Amino acid sequence: MSVWKPGEPDRSSIEDFVVSFCREYKAWNNDAYAAYSKENIEQPADDYSSASYANLLRPFITPETRTQLPTFGSDPRFVPDRLAIRCITPTNDGATVEFAIQSMVGEWADDFVADLTLKPFIAIRQIYYIDPYPDDDVDRLPYL
After folding, report:
1. Contact indicator for 77, 70 with CB cutoff of 8 Å
2. Could you tell me if 129 and 118 are in contact, meaning their C-beta atoms sit under 8 angstroms apart?
3. Burial, 18: exposed, middle or buried (Cβ in 10 Å; 0-12, 13-18, 19+)?
4. Gap between the Cα atoms of 84 and 104, Å rounded
5. Which residue has the higher pLDDT, 111 or 45?
6. Distance between CA atoms of 47 and 45, rounded to whole angstroms?
7. Over the stretch 91-142, which tens digit does the pLDDT of each residue have?
8. Measured between alpha carbons, how far is 42 from 77 in angstroms, rounded to an integer?
9. Contact 53, 28 (CB under 8 A)
10. Among 14, 23, 82, 91, which is most exposed with the fewest C-beta within 10 angstroms?
11. ∠112-4-125 over CA atoms, to 5°?
């Protein structure tokens, strides 16, 4: 069913790591969307997307990262060509990366914050979507 194979993160810098995550996410999304679009009798697309999502995330996240259900569609959420890293802020044991993904069809961008650990190597603890219209003052929603 699949042509996508998980790639390895580029850990040469925080910026390269985020770009490599976006590149792999886009490739996974396109493959999962194609599988969903032509439902395979041998392996239902929902089963495939869940298993392949875990394979996508495994080399990028910490073992403690709690993930959401996979989401995919005709417009991938993380696209390296539309990525703008706005700010990298060091923390005690890692960094936060504020970034935006420009919309494919409009003038707006979706904002995200990646919470990274740097030890023993760069890995994602979580990526949060910044909700421009938060409920109950919760503006950071776990995305992965």
Report:
1. no
2. no
3. buried
4. 14
5. 111
6. 5
7. 999 999 999 999 988 788 999 999 999 999 999 999 999 998 888 888 899 9
8. 28
9. yes
10. 91
11. 30
Enter the tokens of residue 114: 């990646």
* CA distances (Å), origin 8, targets 12, 60, 96, 109, 129: 12, 8, 21, 27, 24
Neighbours of 96 (CB within 10 A): 15
Q: Which long-range contacts (CB under 8 A, 24 or more apart) does 112-119 make?
A: 112/143, 113/140, 114/18, 116/14, 116/17, 117/62, 117/93, 118/93, 118/94, 119/93, 119/94
Token pair in block for residue 134: 């938060």
